[in-house]
Amino acid sequence: MLVTRATAPDHEAVYRIEDTASGARGFIAIHSTRLGPAAGGLRMRAYDSEADALEDALRLSRGMTFKNAAAGLPLGGGKAVLMGDPARDKSPALLHAMGRAIDGLEGRYWTAEDMGMTPKDMVTLSEATPFVAGLPGGKFASGDPSPVTAEGVFRGIRIAARHQLGTSDLGGLSVAVQGLGHVGMHLCQLLADAGVGLWISDLDLKRVAEAVNRFRAVATDGANLLEAPVEIFVPCAIGGVLNKTTIPKLTAGIVAGAANNQLSEDADAARLAARNVLYVPDFVLNAGGIINVAAEILRVDDRARFVADKLSVLETTLDGILREAARKNVPPAALAEAIVARVLLSSAA
Ligand code: NAD
């Protein structure tokens, strides 16, 4: 197997992995280990080119640095990507090759599930390296992170509602949830229990039918969801949903969801603010999942307590960011990035 060092100006280290025997090709990007070992999942996708795979690894690993720091976790940011269709190209040999590459970093990078990976794949990876979290069993196993992500997002939505609408009681409000996957469906349950009227969309019509059935949600297609008569828009599907085309169509006064990288470009934060839409920075709001995984990486004995404490920190942090952003009249996303950048600068290298 060939592991070569690539470079990226903003990153501590980037490794290109190629294993001809298994066909494994991908990258491990370590953005920062200032706060602790770099942690972030392994993604497998049919990228169009190596350049695309590298760009994804770089962008996602930087995002993990910010997410972990904002959540107050003693972890840095990293991410690994494998090129290929997970349904067709994944094999134990390929995962073992990635596992060996991770092992060679001697704990500077910890992996877990991301798109295209399952808990079972983590078990396969763990045959080649101990630096794997998201395992389905074992003393510290953290299991599915999605319910914790959903809980963090739910609490964040309440905080955002207090700032923007003057009440954290969501009863009677209307909320649009895009994406009814692991996080979205849990979140719908929490919102429905809080007395929210739900508008929903998903490409998977079975999930749409389930949500209509369980929550009496109003189903709509993707484009129309943006214009649904709701107070809060909750992206829980894909990145890039907020851009110069979609932002003018939004009816909601709050955007707060689990999806990573919701803004298409930095300027979208200002576009939302200009329309008086409160955009809750995704990397702060959706940290529940990594909090759950962190308990496994850090070998925490009382995981429930750790998760509860860190979710409270997340609430306090978010409340502070929204308050300070309003006082300074700046977009919360820009302020959150600046705060985390300061934390990173002031920490020991
Ligand atoms: P998932 O794959 O389980 O669900 C995503 C859902 O979105 C699927 O049902 C899919 O059909 C739907 N979808 C895809 N494109 C869509 C579109 N254009 N319109 C409507 N629906 C669409 O993913 P998940 O684990 O629920 O994660 C959701 C988002 O939250 C992702 O962006 C993920 O990166 C992010 N996130 C997840 C976690 C976690 O703990 N799972 C943590 C942090 C961030």
Can you list the ligands bound to this structure? nicotinamide-adenine-dinucleotide
* Percent in strands: 15-25%
Query: Terminal Cα separation, in Å?
Result: 31 Å
Main sheet, how many strands, which sense, barrel? 7 strands, mixed
Name the structural class.
Answer: alpha/beta
Discrete helix count: 13
Q: Which radius of gyration do the C-alpha atoms yield? A: 20 Å
Helicity, as a percent range: 40-55%
Give the number of DSSP strands: 13
Mean pLDDT: 95
Residue windows where pLDDT falls under 50 for at least 5 positions: none
Query: What is the overall silhouette?
Result: globular
The arrangement of helices and strands along the chain is EEEEEHEHHEHHEHEHEHEEHEHHHH
Explain what you see.
By secondary structure, the protein is of the alpha/beta class. It contains 13 helices and 13 strands. Strands 1, 2, 3, 4, 5, 6 and 7 form a 7-stranded mixed beta sheet that branches. Strands 10-9-8-11-12-13 form a 6-stranded parallel beta sheet, with helices on both faces. Helix 6 links the parallel strand 8 and strand 9. The structure holds nicotinamide-adenine-dinucleotide. The site of nicotinamide-adenine-dinucleotide has 24 residues, from helix 5 and helix 6.
